[in-house]
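Page 37, continued from 36.
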């Protein structure tokens, strides 16, 4: 497979730079939605992470003609039967802030003891080329602690303690978080797959 450029369906500068550096050694140029100002915001209204990731990547591929990559992430809490999941960004309402969402989560889990506060972040990355689509999943297990700790990261990071670590995602060095995280694992799977394809 001869892939020279990929468009990442994201306006998140941090995600773009990180993936650009990851793909550079493979000789793959990473473009982003900033390179295609005519692209519209895709409504993430599918009822699964897979559905949203594929919807975004298909739209960007169809509009630009380039292979497209996207990702969608959710926090799946065991005691809430997997909620907020695909609704993680708007758990506390349509325009909820990260803090609103964390507050609602801690509220809902207030009576749940530590041993039943298991949760996982799950990312699905979708890659769409002419006629083909592929998905790559990354999962990071941990627990939701009862008070926020740390000032790094974003979203639910201050209350997520990854398994086998004593620091929350908001306390860990970003390089460590990226290595063990749901998104890091999904992107690593994509990287391994595309590296393999490039060699054929
Ligand atoms: P997105 O699909 O990357 O936009 O993520 C959806 C929502 O999940 C975000 O708005 C955050 O609330 C949450 N989220 C995604 N990734 C992370 C993470 O690495 N740490 C904490 N929260 C996250």
């Amino acid at each position: 497979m001869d892939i020279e450029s990929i468009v990442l369906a994201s306006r998140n500068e941090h995600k773009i730079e990180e993936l650009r550096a990851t793909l550079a050694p493979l000789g793959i140029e990473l473009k982003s939605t900033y390179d295609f100002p005519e692209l519209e915001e895709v409504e993430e209204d599918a009822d699964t992470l897979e559905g949203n990731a594929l919807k975004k990547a298909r739209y960007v591929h169809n509009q630009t003609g380039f292979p497209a990559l996207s990702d969608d992430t959710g926090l799946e809490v065991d005691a809430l039967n997997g909620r907020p999941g695909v609704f993680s960004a708007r758990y506390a309402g349509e325009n909820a802030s990260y803090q609103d969402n964390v507050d609602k989560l801690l509220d809902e889990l207030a009576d749940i003891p530590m041993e039943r506060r298991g949760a996982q972040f799950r990312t699905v990355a979708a890659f769409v080329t002419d006629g083909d689509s592929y998905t790559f999943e990354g999962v990071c297990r941990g627990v939701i602690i009862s008070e926020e700790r740390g000032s790094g990261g974003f979203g639910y990071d201050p209350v997520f303690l990854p398994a086998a670590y004593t620091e929350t995602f908001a306390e860990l060095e970003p390089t460590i978080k990226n290595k063990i995280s749901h998104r890091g694992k999904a992107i690593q799977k994509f990287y391994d797959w595309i590296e393999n394809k490039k060699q054929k």
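The radius of gyration is 17 Å. Flag for discussion at group meeting. The CA atoms of residues 46 and 52 lie 5 Å apart.
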